[in-house]
Predict the 3D structure of the following.
Amino acid sequence: MSSNPLSAASLILGHMTHRRLQHIFRSDGRTLIVAMDHGAISGPVRGIENPADTLAAVIAGGADAILTTYGVARAFERPLARVGLILRADGGRTDLGRPDVPGAMHFTVESALRLGADALAISAFPGSPDEGRSLEALAQAVEAAHAWGVPVMAEMVPGGFDSGPEFRTVDKIALAARVGVELGADLIKCPYAEGFDRVIRGTFAPVVILGGAKAGAEREMLAKIKAAIDAGAAGVAIGRHIWQAAYPAKMTAAVAAIVHGNASVEEAMRELDA
């Protein structure tokens, strides 16, 4: 190890970042993240009215990590101790708010450390009216988190969450993902599009796909996950598709079969009948 104390500190913090990522990824380099941060926007929507029940189901089904809010992380510390924990550090408007309200940082890396979180989640929106502010917030969060050896998952959504199909092309997703890693993100969460290998080739960090708002259509969702994994994705970060399913534990197991077992869509569908 270098005798330079600053270099030594950098090595130690880099090791801490890697160690925390190992709480999120399995040894195969893949992860199944269940997103449960929706309550901070939409309140007690169906499927997460009782977070304890939801956590029990998805963890039993094979979730590797949970993306959630400060309040859930604090209130349900015991079940969350069994999986990786990603803290949603930023936020925007609620469903009661105006659509033009910009996002804001809600929690610091120190807050995440006090909760025992393994990573921060920050959203950024290249191509949206909120582009500049969101990219600045991401860069500042990365700088602050890395000073403590905490990794950052950047949710890179071209055009913003409400953007239309013109923003969900593979070229625009690839650009957004690359911007995220250029700003130092350790993990990218982004939409899926056909030709996803283009995103993977241009992103020098693991990439997971987000699930989107639509619930149901299990076969369609599993086919998208299979295509993403085959293209080189490192996993998924999915919410409603899992915890609004008829049996969240079985749906989690079906997704895990593809992510970690390289199962076909047909094989994954059998998990729903198990």
